[in-house]
Amino acid sequence: DDYQRYLLDEAKRQRELAKLEVQAPTLDAAKVAIKNEAASVVASSHGGRNEPKNVAADARGQRRQSAQVRSQQAQALRPLRQELERIDQRMALLAKERAEMEDKLSSNPAPADIAEFGRRLKAAVDETQRLEERWLELSSELEAATQAA
To answer: Is the pTM of the predicted complex or chain greater than 0.90?
Structure first.
């Protein structure tokens, strides 16, 4: 049973890693697009000339460019933040379910119910562990993307 559980957990972990590898190029492409857009905004704000411009106009252009870059970064990172939010909500529900199952198990339930409560508790614990790992991965991705920009 332990070996079978190990194989199932390992297969699940491999699927999650494969899914992350598929998502990583999308995030990298978004970073490249943001940098390219910022470079094109800078080039277009100078109009391809080396002539000095009005200082106030330059400041407005730089603020506009910074705002565009921040907006694009926020848009690229939005899916990560949304997934983190969904994970947080699910983990809160699982915490409630775990507490409920622990209470039921500690209240001396009927023998037939013990197995069901134990199964549900284990499922909640396993899912919580998986979600915590994913939460950590997403947080580090989000932090790295924020620092890179």
So the answer is: no
The Cα 96–Cα 124 span in angstroms is 10
Reported residue count of the chain is 149
Q: Which residues of 30-48 are buried (b: 16+ CB within 10 A; e: fewer)?
A: bbeebeeebeebeeeeeee
Please report which residue ranges of 47-110 form alpha helices under DSSP H: 55-106
Assign 1 to helix, strand or coil. Answer: coil
* 80-111 pLDDT tens trace: 888 888 988 988 999 999 999 889 888 888 88
* Neighbouring residues of 72: CB distance < 8 A, sequence distance ≥ 6: 33, 34, 37
